Amino acid sequence: HAKEKGRNNYQFFKDEMNTRTAERLAIEGYLRDALERNEFILHYQPKVNLETGMITGAEALLRWLHPEWGLVMPERFVQIAEDSGLIIPIGRWVLREACMQAKRWEETGLRLDSIAVNISAVEFRLKDFANSVYTILNETGLNPQRLQLEITESILMRDVESSITILHQLKTIGVKLVIDDFGTGCSSVNYLHQFSIDTLKIAPAFVQEIGHDNGNNGVIVSAVIAMGASLKQHVTAEGVEKWEQLAFLKVQHCEEGQGYFFSRPIVAEQFAQLLVTGLSDRNRVS
Ligand code: C2E
Ligand code: MG
Ligand code: MG
Ligand code: MG
């Protein structure tokens, strides 16, 4: 019996693996043509000043509008794009599109402090990455100060020495640097200083612990806010979903928040509308 069961488990595992490999291959195949077919779009999620309730910036989030599958979220294809190298042309498209959009908004009088773009490990380690950022800024005419590059803590920690070099190249251009998912990658305070980072973005997992006695009940959030204040770095709390979380963040003087509580990521036209009308009063907790 045990032997039989073992074989069934193995068979199940094998089928599962084959299905996943097939799905990966299908996604990779379609991804190759997705840029040419214009199937990518960006959604924008507001970053909110917690003191004033004003929208200060937007994070550009990539979506793939597949003709048969519909809207495909980054979790399903970004890794595959990284493994195949396709993330390089896709990432360039994201950067150019986001900069162009920010510039367009600016020209219609909708000025944002910043537009944020997520950078994958593969792009970050490219020899000419800083150059291509510089080129895109020149082409689109966006002020480098208005571009935030979001890089996860774990990417930076993979090779600290080269990270410091790359971050300094980017700093020279004048763009702003954000550590994404901060608190999940174990960087030491010493590195934070050397990285010349502008903003720490607290990972949603820590924000979600606020108000839960069983978790750390916001102590990590408070610690990061305090550290940001001492190191003169901006702090953004990510994944704000509940009023209680917002209230806690405000008491702790967290500067900025982002999350479903304010708005889900939305298309450019909707975002422009939101910039005009502002967030609803419900969100402006005083
Ligand atoms: P991220 O950069 O940490 O982005 C935040 C993710 O959290 C987004 O998911 C966003 O929609 C989601 N989110 C925002 N507010 C809330 C909230 O209140 N609750 C919850 N549960 N989630 C919230 P999304 O758009 O699915 O993106 C997932 C990840 O995919 C991103 O994580 C980023 O690592 C990656 N990604 C997205 N766009 C790009 C891109 O253009 N290039 C690269 N390389 N990666 C991207
Ligand atoms: Mg991000
Ligand atoms: Mg994040
Ligand atoms: Mg993430």
TrEMBL record:
Residues 24-279 form the EAL domain. It comes from the Bacteria. This is PAS domain S-box-containing protein/diguanylate cyclase (GGDEF) domain-containing protein.
